[in-house]
Design brief:
Structural class: alpha+beta
Low-confidence stretches: none
Radius of gyration: 69 Å
Shape: rod-shaped
Helix content: 55-70%
CATH superfamily of the largest domain: Band 7 domain
CATH architecture of the largest domain: 2-Layer Sandwich
CATH class of the largest domain: Alpha Beta
Largest sheet: 3 strands, antiparallel
Strand content: 15-25%
Strand order of the largest sheet: 3-2-5
CATH topology of the largest domain: Tetrahydropterin Synthase, Chain A
Mean pLDDT: 82
Length: 302
């Protein structure tokens, strides 16, 4: 007949034709009644409260430590499951948890004995890692894997930890005061530096503005000189052109006057010639004719 189990359980079938026994974690298996036997083993995760009371540390100070461990039988690893079956088959979860707890507590005490109170108190992570490492290497031979281990509590009956805490508190307060003073000092330095940088930046800005103003004024002066030069050149050219134009106009006027005078002279000469002709026609020729007449008359009277 068939038997089944959940993922948190393993079945071991032994007997007829089952040598070595068959182990099934989370599944089903066929079992022949009467000639074969089936047994179950839990794969549940077990939470262990690992207490070590009044253990003397390396410097002889007794303290008590409580750790929390999570352990389980590893069903997916056939070798570890076989080892667990050899160790715990037929035992209850409580019995398995007790064996694992005793093993963990022994390793926890051993680690405590090799460390000082200060090391355990200040570096809990290191302590937890050492217990986890040592216990895991031992429990794996039993088929049990340590899922996690965490240091839960440290205390003592002689106020050693309280005194250590006071000293630590005083040191922390001292460090805080020193840190606050250093922070104020650094803040003052940063503030002074910031002010200095601000003033320097302001001076640099003013210098740059002055340089820009100077460059602007120099360029403007150069532009003004160039503009004034061009304007003076244009004015001079204009005046020269005006003078040339006036000269040309005067020359043309003189030429016109010369022409007019020449024309007047020609007209006068023509007038003189006309008058001479008119005089000759009106005066000289009649006079010559009269003279000639008189000469002829005189000659005739002779």
């Amino acid at each position: 007949m068939f038997f089944t189990c959940g993922p948190n359980e393993a079945m071991v079938v032994s007997g007829f034709c089952r040598s070595p026994p068959v182990m099934v974690a989370g599944g089903r298996v066929f079992v022949l009644p009467c000639i074969q036997q089936i047994q179950r083993i839990s794969l549940n995760t077990l939470t262990l409260n690992v207490k070590s009371e009044k253990v003397y540390t390396r410097h002889g100070v007794p303290i008590s430590v409580t750790g929390i461990a999570q352990v389980k039988i590893q069903g997916q690893n056939k070798e570890m499951l076989a080892a667990a079956c050899q160790m715990f088959l037929g035992k209850t979860e409580a019995e398995i948890a007790h064996i694992a707890l005793e093993t963990l507590e022994g390793h926890q005490r051993a680690i405590m004995a090799h460390m000082t109170v200060e090391e355990i108190y200040k570096d809990r992570q290191k302590f937890s890692e050492q217990v986890f490492k040592v216990a895991s290497s031992d429990l794996v031979n039993m088929g049990i894997s340590v899922v996690s281990y965490t240091l839960k509590d440290i205390h003592d009956d002689q106020d050693y930890l309280h005194s250590l805490g006071k000293a630590r508190t005083a040191q922390v307060q001292k460090d805080a005061r020193i840190g606050e003073a250093e922070a104020k000092r650094d803040a003052g330095i940063r503030e002074a530096k910031a002010k200095q940088e601000k003033v320097s930046a302001q001076y640099l800005s003013e210098i740059e503005m002055a340089k820009a103003q100077r460059d602007y004024e120099l360029k403007k002066a150069a532009y003004d000189i160039e503009v004034n030069t061009r304007r003076a050149q244009a004015d001079l050219a204009y005046q020269l052109q005006v003078a040339k134009t006036k000269q040309q106009i005067e020359e043309q006027r003189v030429q016109v006057q010369v022409v007019e005078r020449a024309q007047q002279v020609a007209v006068q000469e023509q007038e003189i010639a006309r008058r001479e002709k008119e005089l000759e026609a009106r005066v000289r020729k009649p006079a010559e004719a009269e003279r000639y007449k008189l000469e002829r008359l005189a000659a005739a009277e002779k």
